[in-house]
Amino acid sequence: MTDRLDGPAAPREESDSRGDSPAPADAPHTTRRFGPSPVIAIAFLLPAALLLGVWVVYPIVYSVFRSLFDASGTGFTGLGNYATIFTDGAMLTTIRNNLIWVVVAPIVITTLGLIFAVLTERIRWATAFKLIVFMPMAVSLMAAGVIFRLVYEEDPDKGLANAVLTTVHDTFSSSQGYPEARPREGDQSPVAAQGGAVVTKQAAQTGRPVLIPIVGIKPAVMPGNAQAAKTPQGGNELSGTVWFDFTPGGGGKNGAVDGTEKGLPGMTVEAVSDGRVAATATTAEDGSFRFEGLPAGSYVVRLPQSNFEPAYRGLTWLGRTLITPAIIGAFVWVWAGFAMVLIAAGLAAIPRDALEAARIDGATEWQVFRRITVPLLSPVLLVVFVTMIINTLKVFDLVFIIAPSSVQPDANVIALEMWRVSFGGGNNQGLGSALAIFLLVLVLPFMIMNIRRFRRENA
To answer: Residue 23: in which H helix or E strand, if any?
Structure first.
């Protein structure tokens, strides 16, 4: 049986964890600090903060201030420079070009990157394929601009793009262009010019060769495979010869095929009856042609105008119409490898169990790709897409290098216009600063989007 204490209870004492002298219950608890003191942390952060302020904060603040003044920097214009951006015709063209860049380039790059990344999982030489696609990333944008300036040369003998186009065109087209060529004139000539074409003056009969003498052909245009002209002999078919009626060194007879005169290969010849093309033939290397299976009768033999147009030389890549798509093509060439590598890393992280389960359930490869692979890759695809938007808004080098000075206004972008207005001859740093702030405002939302996504992924 315990005794009751009538007096006040004695204060209880607690011993510390080390078993030393007991500590009073009402003693204040002290918090121990781990790591360096705030003073040391500030000392280490201060140099970086100063550099950040000098290189980032101060230029932004000063650009905002400078954009409110005129070219000389003494006259206050308020928002006048910003109003110029949205009212000047050249500036509106620049904004339109940037809009085209933002819409087209990121979509194309992300799509190609996805396709290349999927291919790397299906082909045997995946490492070599990745190396080839990623190799342009090792080239600076300036060097890429020089490369594609040569690729887009209009002369097929120099430019790779037009060399490919002309090769493909010539493979499927048998017509040979002879610009400035014309029929031999005179009352004795059997042919005459008619609306850009060459037609026979008299109706031709089957079984009688048709002679079509042509002059005015420059030596550079004469095909290398042209052989000595020959006139087809015999037969009940409509046939004839188209040749260059000129004998080197003089001599020969006009309107007659001489031994040293060459035929004109690759010319399209038409047999016309009652205004309708009854048959078409192409001249051989010796200039001869023959209409097979043509019914007997009289026909007008015609060389259509297409024979006398310049030979196909490809496209004018650096002209006003195609300059922006051509530069976007160079940009895609550089950045497609970057997108492929990021998306391939995302593909490697996808659980294979989900893909195999879908295939076991009977899903086709397209259904697996569309409903499983792409949704699981959506975070990576979004990062690539947003990054490409930021890069397209900042593009400068490629436009400056590839676009000739004559068409540069048609290919202009905001970053290039900012430099041109400020330092490239415009000497209007007020308007240039306004363009810089405008570009910053366009880039900021996408940068914030990326930062938020990174924080959510690391949370």
So the answer is: strand 22-24
Last residue of one domain, picked from the residues 286, 308, 330: 308
Number of folded domains in the chain?
Answer: 2
Note the pLDDT tens digit of each residue in 152-164.
999 998 999 999 9
Helix axes 323-348 and 374-393, enclosed angle (nearest 10): 140
Residues 6+ apart with CB under 8 A from 255: 184, 188, 189, 190, 211, 213, 245
Tokens 């932004």 locate to 60
Strand 210-215 versus strand 298-303 pairing type? unpaired
Residue 222 inside a domain? The answer is yes
Q: What would the 3-class secondary structure string for 435-458 be?
A: HHHHHHHHHHHHHHHHHHHHHHHH
Q: Are residues 453 and 348 in the same domain?
A: yes
> Where is pLDDT greater, at 206 or 21?
206
pLDDT tens digits along 326-362: 999 999 999 999 999 999 999 888 888 888 888 888 8
**In terms of residue numbers, what domain contains 97?**
80-162+317-458
Where does a domain end: 308, 333, 356?
A: 308
Asked if the model's pLDDT at residue 280 lies above 70, the reply is: yes
Q: Please name every residue paired with 262 in a beta bridge, in sequence order, or none if there are none.
A: 228
Question: Are residues 444 and 323 located together in one domain of the fold?
Answer: yes
At residue 291, what are phi and psi to the nearest 5 degrees?
Answer: -95, 110
Do residues 332 and 133 make contact, with C-beta atoms less than 8 angstroms apart? no
User: What stretches of 169-325 adopt beta strand conformation (E)?
Assistant: 182-183, 191-194, 197-200, 204-205, 210-215, 238-244, 268-273, 276-282, 288-291, 298-303
Site of tokens 């790709």 = 369
Query: Which of 63, 95, 39 minimizes the C-alpha distance to 393?
Result: 95
Residues 6 or more apart whose CB falls under 8 angstroms from that of 316 comprise 154, 322
Position 391, amino acid: N
